[in-house]
Amino acid sequence: MVGYRQKWVQDLPPAGGFPKLTYARTSVSPIPGSYIFAGVFSVMAIGTYIFFEDKVKRNAREEEEKRRLSMILPILQAENDINFLASPHQNVYFTRWMPPQIGKRAVALIREI
Amino acid sequence: MKNILQIVLEGGLKSLIVIIGLLIGVAFATLLERKVMAAMQKRRGPNVVGIVGLLQPLADGLKLVLKETIIPIVADKIIYAIAPILTFTISIVLWSVMAVGVQSVFASINSGVLFILAISSIGVYGIILAGWASNSKYAFLGGLRSAAQMVSYEVALGLIILSIITYAGTINIQEIMENQNKIWFIVPLFPGFLLAFISALAETNRPPFDLPEAEAELVSGYNVEYSSTGFALFFLGEYANIILMSVLLAVFFLGGIVHNKILGAMKGVSMLCSFIWVRATLPRYRYDQLMYLGWKSLLPFALLIYVGVISMVLMIK
Amino acid sequence: MESYTRAELVASREGLWTVCQNVFDVFEKCKMEKGNDPERCLRESTAVLGCAQKVMRQVVKNCEKQLDNTVKCVEENNMRTLACQNEEKELQDCFDTLVAPHFLPSNE
Question: C82 and A69 in contact by Cβ < 8 A?
Answer without folding.
Answer: no
